């Protein structure tokens, strides 16, 4: 399984990449500028301080100062090419020049074979012909240009090259920002879009929405939290819908179960009140009315108990009791009914005491409901096994038979209100709430109950697990 990186780590990585790319761009621009200027200078195209740039009438001229800073100097020559005046420190010993030789020494481009870079121009002073000669040592004209200490002002060509470099840098810088932004957006925006769309779907009522994407650890945590929340809401919504459906079914079932005996009571009572019942049959009518009244009374009591047990504010009477003794008591109380149908009863309960906290009255009712169902729905000569096991902190009770059992798809519904073993409503005198009440009582004891295959791989087995510590839900 791939370990997801944190968002902080991803942003730091992206930022480092951004900085490195900027540094690389700066290095490339720097190399380009130095190579470009160096090439121009080595080809003699680099701007120099020429004689035409010098104005000897202005001794504070910047060009003269820069010339002197490069150990260069100016010479004034008369018409015979004799040196008559020097500005700066003269480094050679030539005070008279040969015109032909001087012409050959004049520089139009950098020539590393010469000692000095020499330029000259004419000067007309008081109608006397003179010449201005400028000399710069070639060693001070370094073709390796550096930004830290440039040898002299490079003028227009330097700025043109710098501007080109700046434009290239700006283009690459913007391109780098766009790449960085796109990369970061891909890493961050995609998960955010997924989350936003998921929230919108949830808002529109699509509680089956789940987020599926890969991303940084923080986004994965949000995704997992969202999916958990969506699943919880979906389950809650489904349970609420099922609860509403069950309420409607319960109302319908109650109406049916109450209406049937009440109709009989109403008919018998009317017949008696109108005097149309013969004297010898009146007793049977009274007994029928009493029987139907008991059915209605049982149904109402079961409904009240069912509602009470599903109310978490209802407190159980939790006391220490011996669990094995409770089971033996239930078997004893219903032994006659089981014997009447010739049941083969097998009991497997440990001899040592199993002391735990439980509401004796409620647990008796829950387990007796199971026994009543087995007696009612099993044919004669059936076999019933009561078995108690103690596994770690769990008490396991299994009540099994070898009867006809129920369909696999009905096992989950058998504990729903008004559902009977054959999944049909029939008038057998029961309220249809017995096993629902049974499950509610066991759940309130923080236990579980489920249906499994019974004896001889048929019939039913009620598998019940209870917490020995006697915790309450």
Task: Provide a descriptive summary of the structure in words.
The protein has 473 residues and is an alpha+beta fold. The protein has three domains: 51-140; 217-309, Signal transduction histidine kinase, dimerisation/phosphotransfer (DHp) domain (Helix Hairpins, Orthogonal Bundle), CATH 1.10.287.130; 319-467, Heat Shock Protein 90. It is built from ten helices and eleven strands. The protein has helices at residues 7-42, 62-69, 99-105, 155-203, 217-273, 279-309, 323-333, 335-340, 360-377, 434-444, and strands at residues 73-77, 83-87, 116-125, 128-137, 319-322, 344-348, 355-358, 383-391, 394-401, 448-453, 460-467. It has a five-stranded mixed sheet, with helices on one face. The protein has a four-stranded antiparallel sheet with strand order 2-1-4-3. The protein is rod-shaped.
Separation of the first and last Cα atoms: 38 Å
Name the overall outline.
rod-shaped
SS summary, helix count: 10
Strand tally is: 11
| CATH topological fold name of the largest domain | Heat Shock Protein 90
Given this structure, which CATH class of the largest domain is correct?
Alpha Beta
**SSE sequence, one letter per element:** HHEEHEEHHHEHHEEHEEHEE
Major sheet: arrangement of strands: 6-8-9-11-10
Radius of gyration: 54 Å
Instruction: Give the domain tally.
Output: 3
Biggest sheet layout: 5 strands, mixed
Going by CATH, the architecture of the largest domain would be 2-Layer Sandwich
Structural class: alpha+beta
CATH H level of the largest domain: which superfamily? Answer: Histidine kinase-like ATPase, C-terminal domain
Helicity range: 40-55%
């Amino acid at each position: 399984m791939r370990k997801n990186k944190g968002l902080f780590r991803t942003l730091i990585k992206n930022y480092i990449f951004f900085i490195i790319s900027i540094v690389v761009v700066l290095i490339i621009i720097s190399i380009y500028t130095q190579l470009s200027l160096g090439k121009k200078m080595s080809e003699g195209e680099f701007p120099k301080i020429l004689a035409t740039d010098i104005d000897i009438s202005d001794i504070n001229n910047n060009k003269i100062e820069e010339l002197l800073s490069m150990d260069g100097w100016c010479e004034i020559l008369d018409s015979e090419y004799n040196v008559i005046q020097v500005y700066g420190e003269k480094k050679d010993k030539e005070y008279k020049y040969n015109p032909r030789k001087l012409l050959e020494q004049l520089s139009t481009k950098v020539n590393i074979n010469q000692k000095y870079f020499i330029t000259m121009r004419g000067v007309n002073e008081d109608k006397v012909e003179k010449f201005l000669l400028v000399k710069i040592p070639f060693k001070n004209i370094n073709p390796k240009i550096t930004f830290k200490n440039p040898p002299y002002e490079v003028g227009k060509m330097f700025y043109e090259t710098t501007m080109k470099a700046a434009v290239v840098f700006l283009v690459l810088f913007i391109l780098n920002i766009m790449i960085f932004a796109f990369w970061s957006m891909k890493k961050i925006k995609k998960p955010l879009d997924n989350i936003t769309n998921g929230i919108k779907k949830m808002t529109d009522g699509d509680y089956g929405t789940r987020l599926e994407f890969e991303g940084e650890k923080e986004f994965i945590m949000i995704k997992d939290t969202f999916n958990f929340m969506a699943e919880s809401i979906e389950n809650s919504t489904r349970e609420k819908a099922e609860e509403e459906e069950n309420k409607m079914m319960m109302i319908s079932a109650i109406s049916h179960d109450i209406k049937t005996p009440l109709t009989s009571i109403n008919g018998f009572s009317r017949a008696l009140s109108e005097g149309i019942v013969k004297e010898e049959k009146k007793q049977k009518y009274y007994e029928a009315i009493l029987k139907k009244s008991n059915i209605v009374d049982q149904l109402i009591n079961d409904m009240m108990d069912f509602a009470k047990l599903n109310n978490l504010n209802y407190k159980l009477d939790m006391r220490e009791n011996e669990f094995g003794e409770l089971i033996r008591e239930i078997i004893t109380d219903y032994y006659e009914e089981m014997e009447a149908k010739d049941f083969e009863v097998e009991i497997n309960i440990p001899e040592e005491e199993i002391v735990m906290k439980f509401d004796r009255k409620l647990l008796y009712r829950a387990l007796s409901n199971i026994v009543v169902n087995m007696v009612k729905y099993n044919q004669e000569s059936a076999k019933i096994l009561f078995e108690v096991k103690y596994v770690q902190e769990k008490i396991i009770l299994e009540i099994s038979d070898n009867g006809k059992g129920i369909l696999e798809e009905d096992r989950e519904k058998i504990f729903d209100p008004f559902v009977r073993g054959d999944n049909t409503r029939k008038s057998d005198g029961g309220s249809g709430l017995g096993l629902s009440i049974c499950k509610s009582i066991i759940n309130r004891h923080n236990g579980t109950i489920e249906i499994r295959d019974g004896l001889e791989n048929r019939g039913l087995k009620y598998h019940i697990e209870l917490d020995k510590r006697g915790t309450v839900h």
